[in-house]
Amino acid sequence: MSHDITVIDVGIGNLASVLKALKKAGGVPKLTSNAADILSASKLIFPGVGAFGAGSAALQSHGLTDPIREAVLHKKIPILGFCMGMQLFADRGFENGDFPGLGLLPAQVSQLDISKCKVLPHMGWNNLESLDGMKLFQGLPLSPHFYFVHSFHMTGLPAEVQVSHCLYGDEKVTAAVQWENVYGTQFHPEKSLANGIHVLKKFIQDA
Questions:
Q1: Which of 48, 101, 38, 109 is nearest to 74 (CA)?
Q2: What DSSP assignment string belongs to 35-70?
Q3: Which domain covers residue 151, as residue numbers?
Q4: Residue of 34 and 2 predicted with greater confidence
Q5: What is the mean pLDDT of the chain?
Q6: Residue 187: which pLDDT band, with cuts at 50, 70 and 90?
Q7: Can you give the CATH number for the domain in which 35 is found?
Q8: Which of 96, 161, 177, 198 has the fewest C-beta atoms lying within 10 Å of its C-beta?
Q9: Catalytic site positions
Q10: Looking at the predicted structure, is the pLDDT value of residue 138 above 80?
Q11: Measured at the alpha carbon of residue 171, what is the angle toward residues 143 and 187, in degrees to the nearest 5?
Q12: How many Å apart are CA 140 and CA 199, to the nearest integer?
């Protein structure tokens, strides 16, 4: 059975590999930067790469901040963001300045502590911890590996948001979040081989 998936396109995503991975996971992806498509979606995907400020500006230039908030917070359409897409769910981000996010999660996006992790960016494969209750990881073995490329992560999340972490050096990195209909991964599912396809499939079928 195929599932229609609306992929938000504001020019910040690794879209070719994202679309390929979604198709492999059983989705029928549709790229859009149109507010009406977002408001009528059954599921939303928001990928992104680059700096938080550029992503914030792209959302504003496309006029999509309010439509995404309406779709997710009021219409309760499930959304999955990854890498910078997830970071833009926060209230604010502090990469090269202070920029507004979508405000889907009460959080900030701050740089990893270089004194704890020694080298930035955090790049390569890392395993996740604390997966209890995280819907998208059900059916995977303990401590599954995923592919990361980033120097910033989500901080200040309240207790009601479920969080999975990974360790990078001595830094506890926010690797995935789940709160009601909002799902996010700091890692790239589309670059994480079978485990990444599993996460996408779980979102498509079960979120």
A1: 38
A2: HHHHHT-SSEEEEE-S-HHHHHHHHHHTT-HHHHHI
A3: 3-206
A4: 34
A5: 95
A6: very high
A7: 3.40.50.880
A8: 96
A9: 83, 188, 190
A10: yes
A11: 50
A12: 9
In this prediction, residue 202 carries a pLDDT of 97
Angle at 8 between CA 137 and CA 200, to 5 degrees: 20
Two tokens, residue 101:
């996010």
CB neighbours (10 Å) of residue 17?
A: 14
The residue ranking higher by pLDDT, 48 or 34, is 34
What are 61-99's pLDDT values in tens digits?
999 999 999 999 999 999 999 999 999 999 999 998 999
**Cβ contact 33:58 at 8 Å:** no
Residue with tokens 């202070």: 98
Length of the chain: 207
Longest Cα–Cα distance of the chain, Å, equals: 48
**Six token digits for residue 8:** 């938000």
Residue 143, both tokens: 């401590």
Number of domains, the chain: 1
Which residues, including other chains, have CB under 8 Å from residue 140's CB and lie 6 or more apart? 131, 195, 198
